[in-house]
Amino acid sequence: MVGKIHSLESFGTVDGPGIRFVVFMQGCPLRCLYCHNPDTWEIHRETPYQLEPEALLAEVLRYKNFIVKGGVTVTGGEPLLQPVFLKAFFRLCQENGIHTALDTSGYICSEKAFEVLDYVNLVLLDIKTFDSTLHPRLTGVGRENTLIFLNKLENRQIPVWIRHVLVPGLTDEDQSLEALAQFLSAYKMVQKVELLPYHTLGVHKYEALGIPYPLKGTEPLSKERLENAQNIFRKWGFKI
Hints:
Order of helices and strands: EEEHEHEHEHHEHEHH
Largest sheet: 8 strands, mixed
CATH class: Alpha Beta
Helix content: 25-40%
Radius of gyration: 17 Å
Strand content: 15-25%
């Protein structure tokens, strides 16, 4: 059992609580217009790391003293494209007292994907947009699976942090943000909402891969629009 891993980050501070060891898995079924890691899309692409769960754990344990108040976060790409590997790795982490976080779009709703949740302490769920008509244009897929996944997390009482990228003119509209905040307010397991401003830091990767950048000309989110979105979610009682 070997996991295809795009890259590793030993001291992550923005992917869950505390200092974390972050694993970026290879492969993703979505094609988000604002994706800043297009080099993680293709599952069959050669990667620097092809590791068994035990070998990846050994790498993590080198930093255990630093992540004792944090843990491990697996992101991507889409980690649940490799559910058997991920389940085994998270099980080993928990057996060694390491907090586990999964960063996912929730698009993959297979039984094997749900089995991974047996060994997950926290899910960072990326909700791309609450607009059902915009979602396919924004990501290439519908929103239905993400909402099914969210319900699964609620039923299993797994803590959730919502992640939502704010793209000017696409996902920062007040009406859409209000609808999303209202919808999420019914979920007891949603502990926090992370509103992530759109940026252009990944544009050079598209150039290197020879892929046209879909949002060329879109400016980064303004401070005012970020504060506006934060106020909307705070009004509904969310920690930001």
